[in-house]
UniProtKB/TrEMBL annotation:
PROSITE patterns: MOSC. This is MOSC domain-containing protein. InterPro entries: MoCF_Sase_C, MOSC_domain, Pyrv_Knase-like_insert_dom_sf. Residues 5-183 form the MOSC domain. GO terms for molecular function: catalytic activity; molybdenum ion binding; pyridoxal phosphate binding. It comes from the Bacteria. Pfam families: MOSC. Gene3D superfamilies: PK beta-barrel domain-like.
Length: 200
């Protein structure tokens, strides 16, 4: 029996990008297609099969511990980007400013799709959702450079709408305009989830 359930939901890829050198700049450069290997998108500085641990997992490991890279891609929703922009008082928010890899249109409440969900392209290329991507101040600095006076508003406006991080499960190519199918784990939510959150 399949452990992943195909849903009726699909999303259109409306934008793709690559961060070539995150030390030089967080912002992405737009691309028409991405070649995805098990190490992530070709040319992406956040790629690699492993990565040094960061602040997000300090409860598990000391900083810079080598761990599996489940943050190869930063995937965001076009609809949520627009909602963030509106709350900030902007007409639009360029996904490049956030260091985004993929922008999707058509999946409701995208930032909260279940961890372990898969998004599969026409050639079988498949990415696996790691978890919700928490807002941080790095995009705020880029936004401030582009739209002075607005950067500070980003972190609060992006809460719960920052998209997800993901990693490559099956290699292939993704192109702007293609549609991805959503598969979710075929299981109910953990019965102790709320209790575990309340206790932490």
């Amino acid at each position: 029996m399949a452990a992943l359930k195909k849903t009726r939901y699909e999303a259109e890829i409306t934008w793709l990008g690559i961060v070539g050198d995150r030390e030089a700049a967080l912002a992405s450069d737009a691309a028409e297609a991405l070649e995805l290997s098990f190490a992530g998108p070709k040319g992406e500085d956040h790629g690699g099969e492993t990565r040094p641990s960061c602040s997000r997992v300090l409860g598990l490991y000391p900083r810079n511990t080598p761990i599996r890279n489940t943050r190869q891609l930063a995937v965001v929703s076009e609809e949520e980007l627009q909602a963030i922009a509106e709350e900030m008082g902007l007409d639009a928010l360029d996904p490049a400013w956030l260091g985004s890899t993929i922008v999707l249109r058509g999946l409701p409440d995208f930032s909260h799709v279940p961890p372990g969900a898969r998004l599969q392209g026409p050639d079988g290329c498949t990415i696996t959702v790691d978890m919700n991507n928490r807002p941080c101040n790095l995009p705020a600095r880029v936004i401030e450079d582009q739209r002075p006076g607005f950067g500070k508003a980003f972190k609060r406006a992006a809460e719960g709408r920052r998209g997800v991080t993901a990693w490559v499960e099956r290699e292939g190519r993704l192109r702007v305009g293609e549609r991805l199918k959503l598969f979710i784990p075929d299981q109910r939510p953990w019965s102790e989830l709320e209790a575990a959150r309340a206790a932490s």
